[in-house]
Amino acid sequence: MSHKLKIAGWISVGALAGALTTVSLQTAARGSLAPLPLEELQQLAAVFGMVKSDYVEAVDDRKLISDAIAGMVSSLDPHSQYFDKKSFKEFREGTSGRFVGVGIEIAQEEGLVKVVSPIEGSPAFRAGLQPGDLITKIDDTAVKGLSLSDAVKRMRGEPQTKVMLTIFRKSESRTFPVTITREEIKTVSVKGKVLEPGYAWIRLSQFQERTVEDFVRKVDEVYRADPNLKGLVLDLRNDPGGLLDAAVAISAAFLPEGVPVVSTNGQLPESKSTYKASPEHYMRRPGLDPLRRLPAAIKNVPLVVLVNEGSASASEIVAGALQDHKRAIVMGSQTFGKGSVQTVRPLGPDTGLKLTTARYYTPSGKSIQALGIVPDVLVDESQEGNVFAMLRTREADLLKHLNNGNGQPEVKDPAREKAREEALRRAEEEARKPVAERAKMPEFGSDTDFQLKQALNHLKGQPVLISKTQVIEDKTAKKDN
């Protein structure tokens, strides 16, 4: 690995359908620039002058320049991005797993914001908010009609400021206000428990700065509860990714020391690297390797990795490494397919640029860009099938997505197109039903989690109900002659 390459503590937090983040690297700037295209730059300057002098009303210089940079970068691919002051601050908050707010996990339901879970110890937890509570107003703003991201922004703010939430609690058929003082919240990206004697479940929801420490703590907790585990399920479903070093570390927890985990390749010499299951490849700062505290049994415990269409980027690195080294059986659905690396470079004290600089490859040399990881065993989300998953956006569905790099043209997959038409028809049928009768996906890790049950069946040597509905997407397949 190049000594110039350092792992950055930054990820993208701007998600597409809640399913997209990025693996990030920070590299040294290029030593020299290519000759500038003077004629084109003169055109750009001419357009800038015309807008300033001829537009119907005055336009701020800084806004024009920021918008020009943003347009230039966004035209490249879906993951390259210019950060203005506000978005750069949000980006850095997302990477650390810390933010200032009330401390709740939320989802959208019937146009309102639903409390999935208050974060333990947070202001919302102390205020008595409960799972299932609906937020109808944030201060004086009605939630109905707000996007989830807009609602989040309104609940976040500066430390020690107050926000009033109006809560509708179905179980008590009442509406009431709660005033909460915002605090810095530390999110926990790792959950886990012993499901039954001999079998445990560890879930990673994102790869953040604290993820490795949280993972080690949770694994230790699980092994103290049951020192004789016969099988473990690593759940990466809907994990949109995050930090590269965290992905390498989680892979290294299960793999022999020194084996390759992921490689990258791009124009810069610094982007041509191989990351291995070794401390120098995943430790951001000098000190004690956190993985040394893991029980030795973790290296050999039978392992199933659960993935789905929402598993992207760093979670695909982990799944691909464990699959290629035959350390785990990967189950679930074909993953998102984000196989590109972004470099984040500051442009000043409070703005920055996130630029796609490399593709990454699994240990066997496969690029999963726009393809994803194909599970060893395809398992549906429910016993009824996996139909609605076909409607989820994946990397190959994004405009201007980077190609796979294998030289083959992308083509439409007729089987997938047909499956999506069927999924759309079923979704329209569901939408016509009363809300109470609509199909709902079970909570991950619950007793009704169908895919988790199939993972347990595999670990126990019992029959697994494989998918009846899934279609593998390969947009780089050659056309039939």
TrEMBL record:
Q: Which family does it belong to?
A: Belongs to the peptidase S41A family.
Give the highest taxon in the source lineage.
Bacteria
Protein name in UniProt: S41 family peptidase
Which InterPro entries does UniProt cross-reference here?
Answer: ClpP/crotonase-like_dom_sf, CtpA/B_N, PDZ, PDZ_6, PDZ_sf, Peptidase_S41A, Tail-specific_protease
Checking PANTHER family in the record gives: CARBOXY-TERMINAL PROCESSING PROTEASE CTPA, TAIL-SPECIFIC PROTEASE
Alphabetized UniProt keyword annotations:
Hydrolase, Protease, Serine protease
Organism equals Ramlibacter aurantiacus
Which is an annotated GO molecular function term of this record?
A: serine-type peptidase activity
The cellular component terms of Gene Ontology attached to this UniProt record, alphabetical and capped at eight, are: outer membrane-bounded periplasmic space
Instruction: Cite the record's Basic and acidic residues compositional bias ranges.
Output: 410-441
Stretches the record annotates as Disordered: 402-446
